[in-house]
Amino acid sequence: MVHALQRAGRRLSPGGMLISLRPHRRWRPTVAITAPGYRLPIARLVNPAFEGNLRSADSALDRVVDEGWFTAAGTRSSRYRIFLQRPSQMRTYLELINPPRPRFPPGGRARLFALWNSAPPGARIEVTEYLVITVLRRR
Length: 139
Description:
This protein is α+β, with helices and mostly antiparallel strands. The chain has one domain (2-138). 32% of the residues lie in helices and 36% in strands. The protein is built from four helices and five strands, in the order H-E-E-E-H-E-H-H-E. Strands 1, 2, 3, 4 and 5 form a five-stranded antiparallel sheet that branches. The relative contact order is 0.32. The model has no long low-confidence stretch (mean pLDDT 93).
């Protein structure tokens, strides 16, 4: 990743910005059942294989700043939510994520199906993913 960041730095003019979006290292994606005035947390998705990738991405960003390619312009945590109409859409949603994909912890998918059957009318499944947005400025 360091080489890709250096190549981007060669293409950017001085003062140009590079934006890095990556999953948050501590806040895991969450699944909940929601309805107006109702929110029931189901599970946090797990992805232990991705931890090494996140550490590598963080160290690559730190390295290009230390080497003088960029200066850190800012970092911010954010989140986005997607709403699914029924549990069968969850599998498709997870399959669209690039590998390694997050997955339910043991018993999490069964909990989703069990609680979905007792959810109020009009309920939806909310998947919240947390991101870190880092902006680097070309020197």
